[in-house]
Amino acid sequence: MHTTTSHASENKKRNGEHILINMTYIARNVDLDSGIELTRALEYWRRYFEENGIVSALVISEGYFVQSFQGTRPAISTALHKIFDEHPTIFPNIINIEEIESRQWDGFLIKHLTSSNEDELYALKNFSTGADYNPYLMRSSQIENFLHEIFADQKKL
């Protein structure tokens, strides 16, 4: 029995399950409206991430997605392939992939930004480039800082 457990543990390490990854991407929302389609898609991904041990922070604003998700190397690789395969029209751009020691987010966090909220307006003004919010014009460090600022009160401690 001990050799079976040891063998299963070795197989896990061979596939990278012991390594946590943070992957951040930006995308344009060109095929999902802001209503029921988007709500269904978000619920589908929330369940998928939960079932696969992935945590996420997602910002939706002015037709853009900015998302950071964290989990094991195989889980992140599979999720990334699934996103590209199932949503080719969102034109995702990976801006950062790195190994991490622990997950920073807690669950599937979503923030819909609007200019009516003072804090969100502050974040948009301080992390965007130019007059309009467009994550495609932001450097990767700006995007990472933007996510951390938006979800500062919801990070794992």
TrEMBL record:
Q: Which InterPro entries match?
A: Acylphosphatase-like_dom_sf, BLUF_domain
Alphabetized PROSITE patterns for the sequence: BLUF
GO MF term list: blue light photoreceptor activity; FAD binding
Q: Where is the BLUF domain?
A: 20-111
- Top-level taxon: Bacteria
Pfam families the record matches: BLUF
Q: What is this protein called?
A: Sensors of blue-light using FAD
- What organism is recorded for this protein? Psychrobacter pacificensis
Tell me the organism's taxonomic lineage.
Bacteria, Pseudomonadati, Pseudomonadota, Gammaproteobacteria, Moraxellales
